[in-house]
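P.,

For your records, the input lines for the assembly:
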Amino acid sequence: MNNSVDTVQQEVDLLYKSHYGILVASLLKLFQDHSLETVEDLVQDSFAAALTAWRKDGIPSNPAGWIYTVCRNKGLNKIKQSKKISSLSDEPDLTAIAPVFRESALEDPSLQLLFACAHPDLSPKVQVVITLKYVANLKVEAIAKALGMGIDGIDKLLLRARKKIKEEQVFLKEPELSHLNHRLPIVHKIIYLIFNEGYKPSVGADVLNEELCEEALLLNKALLDHRLGDTATAALYALMLFNAARFKARSGPGGELLDLEEQDRELWNKPLISMGCEFMKQSAGGEMSTYHYEASIAFLHCTANNFQSTNWTLISQLYLQLLQMNPNPFVELSYSIALYYSGQKVKALDLLNALRQHPFLNQYYLLNATLGKIHYLEGDHEKARQFFLKTLEQTTLKREKDFIRRMMEKLN
Amino acid sequence: MEKFLFLIRQDLIDREKMKEEDNQNIRVMTIWMESLAQAGNHLASDALLNSGKYVGRDYVVSDGPFIEAKESISGFFLILAENVEQAAAIAQTCPLVLTGKVVIEVRPIMVLDHEQFS
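Structure tokens returned:
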């Protein structure tokens, strides 16, 4: 009995994961007078109804169709209720039901939604959140945990986003074919940001972070499979594969953070690295994007035999190219680190000291951690201690604090 | 992408009184700045001191007006965004805006096209 209950729950969860956003968009198109929130409530209610009904009567042969019909009927009932008060208007044309956009340039409804979420009026953060909600079909609690935000914060973001989605008909108007090219860089950025959110060390469980990285890889793969991407899409895929290959090696047996130098390179996932190399090749030929440079840097790390023999000179040159495309103090930090290990120590320290003068960067955990490590390597343990102490105040993550404390144990 | 100047406005008297909280605020802004840089929206940024000079045709005033003006500029960001809607949406994600500690004035940078020149 318990077993069958679990099967129903699993089926409902799977269906949610594959269809939530598509159902919302389809119903929004059908019931254009309903707000997005109302439509989302209808869909949520229908999933709840499915759980009860299927536990009683068993799973129907077409579960997605079942849920869609229930959603539609609930939506119609809502209109009938309001009609008792207001005057009669035309019945919605049920023959017009179609998955999201009809006659779309994009066949896959999930991809249609992905391009819809890449609306240029929305902030990157909102684009990320609605992509996770309506394309990756994650629940609000999961999004909040994965992004290290409170549920309140996500709800607030969604409240504003829903208004915008409704006003601008984000889910109703198919971005025209000519706009798809303009939207592709935004889609890349969304995927890149989702991956980075999953990749950075966070408070939450690693499982959840890994899931975000997987979602980013899946979205990117869908672009490639449907031949919607360009060379930047392939470069971004290579970059994520190289990073994903190192995911597990970044923490030790006790869950402690390990930096690049400490990682056991045997644990790096070789099939993922060779897949990354494959997509590096495919990314050649077009205009160089930031993803090309970042992927090249990740490639050099992944294929180096060890930390010392890494081609730091070439890596520093690639960082410089990135900086020439876009000034970015956080990339400057990485550039300085590469300069230091390539032997250009004076130049590296000059740059790091210049970054320290910026009031915002001065409060940046990784800048002070880097300065601590470099002074330690240069034998100035007293200065190293000062920077490490400063670093300890700048992070709330226990794993990062522990990492710094371990560094401090090496000091005289 | 277009360029925008974000002018961070806040109560400078409060800011002067709460030095410790100001450090905390800067730390919060650092995290925000990192997210802007990662998304490719950040070009430059700085925080300003409360002091300075106020210059007109017949006068140079030190300090005074900045503090007396109560709400004034405490920092700026130079931002890349798709359009003014997105720029405003980005400003809304500022943690100090969300907690009501600052107000951000979003101003498009003027760009003249060739037709206007000739």
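Two observations worth noting. Chain A has a mean pLDDT of 88. The two ends of chain A are 64 Å apart (CA to CA).

Regards
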